[in-house]
Design goal:
Layout lengths: L1 H10 L6 H17 L4 E8 L2 E8 L7 E6 L18 H37 L2 H18 L9 H12 L10 E6 L7 H9 L5 E5 L7 E7 L5 H4 L5 E6 L6 H4 L3 E10 L2 E3 L13 H14 L11
Parallel strand pairs: 3-4, 3-5, 5-8, 6-7
Antiparallel strand pairs: 1-2, 2-4, 6-8, 8-9
Length: 307
């Protein structure tokens, strides 16, 4: 598991730009081809962006589908940013706050550039040189606040990716499949696309932030049997979730979401994501989650596959 965490958390740990995601997809395809595992790449354009979901295994006959988002988030300018696994509206609010902070910073930098031009450049430099320096300052202002990929993403969402990949050989002989979702970290567009491409009768197990956090939660739709997980060796909080289609669980009739974090002001949140602080991973607990997942889907705990 450590080798896989190193591979997907460090070597392929940034999956934000199209180039970065394409590189990840190509590396994954090589791994799947080497192990003779079937897969499909499902593509759709939404609001000008391309979504590329990866479906692994016999998706038609599988009873259970393990799902996680493979894209990683942008770096947040807000040092107090939080990630809400069960509240898309609050996640959107966090992105809006980040945009406001960047806008304020741009305005401040442009103002400073203008003052520099007015009180320094005009006095000590020729007009043409002053304008060139001013334009350079303006360009640099926008470059500084341009969206950038977060550089370390253990919790969101490399640990879940490594966990699922540790079970990749398991799908050959068991009735499960895997879906890696694009555009699923800062929106649910990739999950909405997944809903269009798979049978709703399947049991969907979504893995979210699982690297760190004090508490584990097993959230599920009403009527979904999670007793094997809840009665296992890990202390999951049992949460029955609503049928709201604006969250990932609400999209699928037979769905479960596993996540780690803490409860703050009656909200379950995952801290330190979208920042350089997303560097912690509890490998022992991650391995135990894998064991419980294998029990849940009715299999045996095989040796973990590593690179």
């Amino acid at each position: 598991m450590k080798d896989l965490m190193m591979h997907y958390g460090v070597t392929l740990g940034i999956r934000y730009t199209k180039k970065q995601k394409d590189f990840f997809v190509n590396q994954l395809k090589e791994e799947l081809n080497k192990n003779r595992i079937e897969y499909q790449i499902k593509t759709k354009k939404v609001l000008g962006k391309s979504i590329n979901n990866i479906l692994i295994g016999n998706m038609r006959d599988a009873e259970t589908v393990l799902v996680c988002a493979y894209d990683t988030p942008r770096h947040s300018w807000n040092p107090k940013t939080k990630y809400y696994p069960f509240n898309e509206k609050k996640n959107t609010k966090q992105i809006t706050i980040d945009l406001i902070l960047k806008t304020c910073l741009v305005i401040l930098l442009l103002l400073l550039s203008y003052l520099l031009y007015l009180f320094v450049l005009e006095e000590y430099f020729s007009s043409s040189i002053s304008i060139v320096i001013l334009l350079s300052c303006v360009i640099m202002s926008f470059v500084l606040v341009k969206d950038k990929a977060n550089k370390v993403n253990f919790n969101l969402n490399s640990a879940s990716l490594a966990l699922i990949m540790s079970m990749i050989e398991y799908i050959k002989h068991n009735n499960i499949a895997i879906a890696f979702v694009d555009e699923g970290t800062e929106s649910i567009d990739g999950f909405k696309f997944l809903k269009e491409t798979i049978n709703e009768a399947k049991k969907i197990i979504i893995l979210d932030c699982l690297a760190s956090g004090e508490q584990l939660v097993c959230a599920h739709r009403k009527g979904v049997d999670c007793s094997t997980l809840l009665n296992g060796d890990l202390d999951f909080i049992d949460k029955v979730y609503s049928d709201d289609t604006n969250n990932r669980l609400g999209l699928f009739k037979n769905s479960i979401l596993l996540c780690s974090g803490e409860i703050v002001d009656k909200q379950f949140i995952s801290m330190n994501t979208k920042s350089k602080k997303d560097i912690n991973v509890d490998m022992e607990r991650l391995s135990r989650i894998r064991t419980e997942l294998i029990k849940f889907v009715g299999g045996k705990n095989e040796t973990i596959i590593s690179k």
